[in-house]
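#lab-general

N.A. 3:47 PM
ok so I finally got the sequence cleaned up, no stray characters, all 147 residues accounted for. can someone with queue access submit it? mine expired

B.Y. 3:52 PM
send it over

N.A. 3:53 PM
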Amino acid sequence: MIRRALAAGALFASVALMSACGGSTPTSTTTDSAAAQPSVQPSVTPSEAAPVYKGDQPAEWDVTLLWQAVAIWYVDNDGAPPAITVEGGRYLLNGTDIGPVTPDVQFGGLTGTGPDDWCVWVTNPLGDQKDFQHAAAGSYEPGKCGS
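B.Y. 4:20 PM
back already:
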């Protein structure tokens, strides 16, 4: 029961982190007076408006995505960490798609023996820090698990 509460709290914190990194849903800033104005067509297409991650942001985003997926998996499972693989530019957790691999990011590994000591890491050769890890307890920092 405690593990589920900790996982829920940690997931809430990581969602807040991802939102701060640009993963949040845009909110409307339209006011009543603005609503009366004629509509203005966007000057860029949706593909041009996609977020561009620079430096360490791609690795930070991906390691948080992977950490969330493993933390959620451990809510209902015990034992060794699940298998994470990359196929077709997508992360798979025990064969289930959990999201896209951000350009330039490479899956580093998932270590540990159970729900309390696992750690996941990724690398981005183009980043300043290059490697980022996220551990079961929620610690998030530059580095490779166990190195």
